[in-house]
Amino acid sequence: MSVMLKTKMTIAALQIISICYVGSVCAEDNVEFNTDVLDATDRTRIDLSRFSTENYITPGDYLLDIRINGQDVSQQKISYVAAPDGKRSLPCIPGDLLEKLALKEEARLMVKQVYENCYSLESLPGAKLTNYAGVLDIVVPQAWMKYNDPSWTPPERWDAGVAGFIFDYSLNGQVTRQLDDSDDYHSLSGYGQAGFNLGAWRLRGEYQTSYYSSDHRYDFDWNQIYAYRPLPMMAAKLTLGEIYLDSEVFDTVRFTGMNLSSDERMLPPALQGYAPEIRGIARTSAKVTVSQSGRIVYETTVPAGPFNIQDLRNSVRGTLDVRVEEQDGSVSTFQVNTANIPYLTRPGYVRYNLAGGAPSRINHKVQGPFFLSGDFSWGISNAWSLYGGLQSAGEEYTAASAGIGRDLSLLGALSVDATESWSRKPDGDRLKGTSYKLSYAKTFDEYHSSITFAGYRFSQKEFRSMAQYLNERYHDYKNTGREKELYTITANKTFWADEAGKATTLFLSYTHQNYWNRHSQDRYGASIGRTFRIGDISGISTSLSAWRTDYEGKKDDSISFSISVPIGDNRWAGLDTQTNNGKTSPMLSYTDNSDYNNLWRIRAGASRDGDASVDGYYQHRSQLAEINTTASYQQHRYLALSTTLRGGFTATRHGAALHNSGATLNTARMMVDTNGISGVPLNGQTAKTNLFGIAVVPDVVSYYSFDTRIDVDAMDSDIEPAKAINTTTLTEGAIGYQAFGMAKGLKLMGTLRLADNSEPPFGAEVLNADGVSVAMVLEDGKAWLAGVNPGETLNVMWGGKQQCQISIPSGTTEQSGTALLPCR
């Protein structure tokens, strides 16, 4: 019988034995194995003690993956101790793991302490612990748990991460060469954050910078410096420093002080809100900048055509200024009023926002009276919510608000509120005014449509928000628009959603804002898209968008139509036509998305003036940064190039790495350590370990379970991971840390021999210096070793401890045949 055949038979026998070990199908607690089924010469030297008792684990310390009621928790060292009857072993549950179980108080009192920092769940009725394949699976009846939402990770299991430094950036450069003898133009702008994490605290400084060649002006500002920390058990967030008030009741105001507020991201998904969207049409490849009170909150480069910005922070509220800078130098601006969906809260729960401090400006100067602000929402019942708040700076300014929200069930959700303000003018006179607001939202599942938000707001002439009061009182902004009426609605509808190839989506948006002291503002539009097939060609898509903006007395009309036909694997040919204020520019296009990390599009046609026009868009995603580049040429007018570079840098005591980074600030990130092995791809190759075996996976959604995955299929064949996935839940802004056991090297067959020329027992394990298992000893001391290197020393374990060591001979290759490995 050949060695390979005998080895396969031995492995099969071991798998049968393992059924009793892992699957717990053996009827007896203690099992005696008939070793005659194993093709081993010396059956007295077989170490199967760990298989002889159901789920028996040799006493000792083990690094195990933890699973609680089916949810993965990060790895942890677990000690197994001998049971009093001497026939079993018991896992010691350390205190920090016991907290992660999120037990009710009465259940927690049932848990017995065995030794110092060692608890047993045997006294908890229904609890069961099973160890298999390196996983400690803990099952606790739901009756003993604080929470009952399997799709949500409770706060006891959230990870605050490790201490470290972060630096994120988004840079945009633009160069325009004028062909009509006018001045050339170039600019550079950027924004981002730098900071440090220590425990649960995050210190952050948000910056923005710009340079414009037209007036040789350079600016750099730290526009916001603050520190914050999550308070998980309160479902709240504490912030100190320069803050933008994030209130569901009052408008945004910048101040220096303290803010304690409920953070609904810590709540189960069904209880969370939404983030605003910004839609528009770019005539050429353009830079879109979204700012609020002079602070950049988002900036990116978009190709020509309709754009939809969806990844703004959900804390962004109030009026946003949108600036679209085309590559021909023209600029269009409009405002977006981000509205809140009806302010409803779950029954018996109170959401709150408390703040105190002094108003401050972007130059960090405090200007204005000290004020206190507080708002709340109380869920009275399943249908009713009561909300309101108070904002006061003594005799200078006070505002009070009260409202009620109603869940109308099949009819949607509705809220109505009123806010009254008392303010002092610069000349000492006092003003009193009221603002009324109505909000409505409804999803019609049966009709595949929804009214995302519909709202109306009316403010009396003498009503002032705190920001308006400060502008008039201290900044002399007498011409600041004082809002009178605001109508807004956004809705979408999908037609023929259940018919393949006929689904058509319609999006509508309308905003009307008028003022007591200046021109009104209107913005409305619609977009419709459909994917269908003609004959054998499927995946043909069409879209039509139309927008009108009337802002500060200027009208801007844009219409965009496009059709694309697939001509290969993720490749399309298309026609794009845009009309802007009556001038039309048709363009033929070719798009290639076949490589996820390299997307590009090129278009050629005519400009609005009838001249030849060519533009292109290229996006490159790498592990170090994301690059978006656009280029445009218009005959007789200009040649322009713009690039956005977005990335970050993270450093901890475990290492440092450059990495890709999204535009959203204060997202969590995961640092991955692969034991010094470089080139390991992670999470769909969004990151790859550097020369030091360190990588950072960016843009991890806070408070959601996140899987850090090794892309095994894309990994070099000489790398052997001990496991391929780790799961954790990070708090806001956290730097998570995951270490993956890795072995890199040869694969070869070895024969282990002890000093007396006998072999280690069947089932003994071979580990490298990092504790990664590289082989199990089979019959006659044979072992198939994976991920080993010439000259490397390996530890051989049996009986629960290290027994001897082997060394891989220098000069060994995978073609060396079976190697003799003395175990000393």
UniProtKB/TrEMBL annotation:
Residues 751-807 form the PapC-like C-terminal domain. Belongs to the fimbrial export usher family. Residues 1-27 form the signal peptide. One of its GO terms (biological process) is pilus assembly. It is found in: Cell outer membrane. InterPro entries: Fimb_usher, Fimbrial_membr_usher_CS, FimD_plug_dom, PapC-like_C, PapC-like_C_sf, PapC_N, PapC_N_sf. GO terms for cellular component: cell outer membrane. Gene3D superfamilies: 2.60.40.2070, 2.60.40.3110, 3.10.20.410, Outer membrane usher protein FimD, plug domain (2.60.40.2610). Keywords: Cell outer membrane, Fimbrium biogenesis, Membrane, Signal, Transmembrane, Transmembrane beta strand, Transport. It comes from the Bacteria. This is Fimbria/pilus outer membrane usher protein. Residues 32-173 form the PapC N-terminal domain. It is a multi-pass membrane protein. PANTHER family: OUTER MEMBRANE USHER PROTEIN (PTHR30451), OUTER MEMBRANE USHER PROTEIN YFCU-RELATED (PTHR30451:SF10). GO terms for molecular function: fimbrial usher porin activity.
